[in-house]
Specification:
By secondary structure, this protein is α+β, with helices and mostly antiparallel strands. The chain has two domains: about 5-135, no CATH class; about 140-205, N-terminal domain of TfIIb, CATH 2.20.25. The protein has seven helices and seven strands. A four-stranded antiparallel beta sheet has the order 1-3-4-2. A three-stranded antiparallel beta sheet has the order 5-6-7. About 35% of the residues are buried.
Length: about 210
């Protein structure tokens, strides 16, 4: 994550008692988390993923059905990983980060627990994708992203590779057309969240 040292902990969740991280700079918490033998499993912010986190994101996406992968952006995956940490029973720390007009999320667990958490996150995405789209994007944000598309405005950066503005495109998948953007560098699709939710709702209604 670029400029991660400039972010501060705004909120945190943990299964470890008596851990005080609120308000600390992200780089200040590293020694404390290392002392508890925790290492970063996943970092996500509004700019782009690090190479390691991109690899983990792609690993998760490769193991879910294509229609779920189409709608699963890095932030949705991070929320699934947070729930997986909570449900798995492992010791973990989840950080909400903010600063420098950026927002980030960070999940920390012991390395020997990484695979168990990732497997559970994949299962949660398969069963509850609509929950994560609702968790990540409130109604105002969903309307805002749709408005950006309708105004024919570009996205500034690809959220996966950080490349130049993804191209605005109508994306055909699952016999449907979705408004969105496609990164010409890594091929990642950004789908307008309201389109994804409408598709999922129609599937539920049958």
């Amino acid at each position: 994550m670029s400029h991660i040292e400039g972010l501060k902990v705004s909120m945190f969740e943990t299964s470890i008692a008596d851990l005080d991280l609120a308000g600390k700079r992200y780089d200040e918490v590293l020694n404390l988390l290392s002392y508890h033998e925790l290492s970063v499993l996943y970092e996500c912010c509004m700019s782009s993923l690090t190479d390691f986190q991109k690899g983990l994101y792609e690993k998760v996406i490769a193991k879910v059905p294509k229609e779920i992968a189409l709608f699963s952006d890095p932030i949705a995956v991070s929320f699934a990983l947070r729930d997986a940490c909570d449900l798995s029973g492992v010791e973990y720390v989840w950080l909400d980060l903010e600063g420098d007009d950026d927002v980030g999320y960070s999940a920390w667990v012991r390395e020997e627990d990484w695979d168990a958490v990732v497997r559970l996150a994949i299962d949660l995405l398969k069963r509850h994708l609509e929950k994560y789209l609702l968790d990540v994007y409130d109604r105002g944000t969903r309307n805002g992203i749709a408005g950006v598309w309708e105004a024919e405005l570009p996205l500034q950066l690809c959220p996966v590779c950080g490349g130049a503005s993804p191209e605005r495109r109508v994306i055909s998948a699952n016999k449907r057309k979705f408004r969105g953007w496609t990164c010409t560098g890594c091929g990642h699709h950004v789908i307008v969240p309201s389109d994804a939710l409408d598709y999922l709702k129609r599937g539920v209604e049958g």
